[in-house]
Amino acid sequence: MRQPQLVSRLQGFGTTIFSEMTALAVEHEAVNLGQGFPDTDPPEVAIAAASEAMRAGHNQYAPGPGVPALRSAIAEHQQRVHGLRYDPDTEITVTFGATEAVAAALLALCERDDEVLVLEPAYDAYTAAIAMAGATERRVPFAPPALPADGAASATDLGAWHLDVERLSAAIGPRTRLLLLNSPHNPTGAVLDEATLDAIAALCVEHDLLAVTDEVYEHLVFDGEHVPLATRPGMRERTITISSAGKTFSCTGWKVGWACAPPELVAAVRTTKQFLSFSGGTPLQHGVAAALGAGDVPLSHVGQVQRRRRDLLVEGLRGLGAPTTRSAGTYFVTADVAPLGHPDGEAFCRAAPAAHGVAAVPMSAFVRDPAPVRSLVRFAACKDEAVLAEGVRRLGGLETTATGGARGGETGV
Length: 413
Ligand code: PMP
Ligand code: GLN
Known about the structure:
3-stranded antiparallel sheet, 13 strands, Aspartate Aminotransferase, domain 1, binds 4'-deoxy-4'-aminopyridoxal-5'-phosphate, 8-stranded mixed sheet, Aspartate Aminotransferase, domain 2, binds glutamine, single chain, alpha/beta, 413 residues
């Protein structure tokens, strides 16, 4: 719908699909398997440090680049976990979530009409940030998952989404400025392997592209491992690596993110970022510093919890007869709801909160041409096991025993 006061380059963005679906979930007390936020609290070490920071008077503006303790903790994390060394003073900057880091990077690096490569299905904030920067988005599609060709009627393993690097190569042109890469990937749940990342790195080097990587699900990988693009040959000097505490420490509402890159790239991001929010969440930055400083246990814990949740949801959806991907990472799985009698995923998602007491997100929201993904739906598996079980029970049309639970989402509350 056209918004009369909105600039033309942002027409059509409307309200995000996540906000829409959470609003429907709240209205109908539905189990919210739509918007990706967990119903677990952050680790006690993070809460204690954030509360302590508030009581100790850390309630005013943080330095624009972020509080030093957090930048040091990020540097230590990148070195320990990924073997990437960054100087906390010149090569790391803290942002208001990964969302601001992505926007700040695109605003800092793209001239008008530069082209930005994005994997499709695409997270909505990328398209909006590219539009705000006045750049042009070029999408490189994943091949959607499909049942095996021999397709036994009982088959419910939907396979996986597949990225063909040839298609990425074909999308590069004279105006291509940068690649915005997301792995582990929302919404497909795909995790790009080392061979694919090497091929992508070779293209970036050959065509002298910058890379901006969104790695917010870096600790939510269940099959394979997360490899930052910056670790591949020739990439550290041309990559802005972005992550955030939201998924790793179950604090999506804290909006503490960061960007790591060589000094000239970080300086560029700092310039735009200081005029977006300047800085934010000072005590929360202290909380995240403490959580990052607590070593590997909280990091592997979140992965183990989420793997169990993924398996429970996958088995539940498959048990209903919906072919479902066993995603290698992230909060999300993809299910084909056509065998449940819903050939149109979007219609299903708009009706499901009222009709079934369950919210989910249609895959069509992440693509330009919905035809190949028409019956595919993204379900968020980042909820308590009892909530996931209840969601599956409701989708199965069986008698419900509870409402969606207290953690339906903040929208409208
Ligand atoms: N990138 C991806 C791929 C996401 O799924 C999300 C949503 N959680 C974000 C970025 C946003 O991260 P943040 O909340 O830290 O801004
Ligand atoms: N990243 C979350 C998701 O994919 C949504 C975040 C948001 O609502 N902006 O569900």
